[in-house]
Amino acid sequence: MSTANSKSPKERVDPHTMDERRADVARRLRTAREMAGLSQGQVARILQIHRPSVSEAEAGRRRVPAEELSELAKIYGVSVNWLSGFGADKLDPGNPRVELAARELGKLKPEDLNRVLQLLAALRSEPGTNE
């Protein structure tokens, strides 16, 4: 029988790496919820959990079970891989909001996408918007 304590030092997971991963998952959970336009309370009701559980997960103080992560991915319209920071769909690990925006843009009708692109071009051309 193998236990976590019987692993060699090379096989043990670096706690700093785990902390970074948990923080990344927490950021992605919050970003995905906000991009979905949902409050923590709404997500809690959908999942039938207490609101502080959502808050704790988004703060990185609570581990999110795989089943819950899967449900959150469905609710937010993102992949479990993206929420957990893995997979081929990881575009820019430093900016998950850009990736979520790209996913949402991909869902638009061509004419709506053209309007959004025109709006973005107009925003870029306005003075003081490059901040």
How would you describe the overall organization of this protein?
- The model has no long low-confidence stretch (mean pLDDT 78).
- This protein has helices spanning 15-35, 40-47, 51-58, 66-76, 80-84, 96-106, 110-125.
- The protein is globular and about 45 Å long.
- The protein has 7 helices and no strands.
- The protein is mainly alpha-helical.
- The N and C termini lie far apart (56 Å).
Summarize this entry quickly.
With 131 residues, the protein is mainly α. The chain has seven helices and no strands.
Give descriptors for this structure:
single chain; mainly alpha; 131 residues
Helix content: 55-70%
Largest pleated sheet: none
Report, as a whole number of angstroms, the end-to-end distance.
56 Å
| Percentage beta strand | under 5%
| Overall spatial form | globular
Would you report the number of β strands?
0
Low-pLDDT parts are none
Order of helices and strands: HHHHHHH
The whole-number mean of residue pLDDT values reads 78
Number of helical elements: 7
Regarding quaternary structure, what we see is single chain
Category by helix and strand content:
mainly alpha
Explain the layout of strands and helices:
Layout: H1 15-35, H2 40-47, H3 51-58, H4 66-76, H5 80-84, H6 96-106, H7 110-125
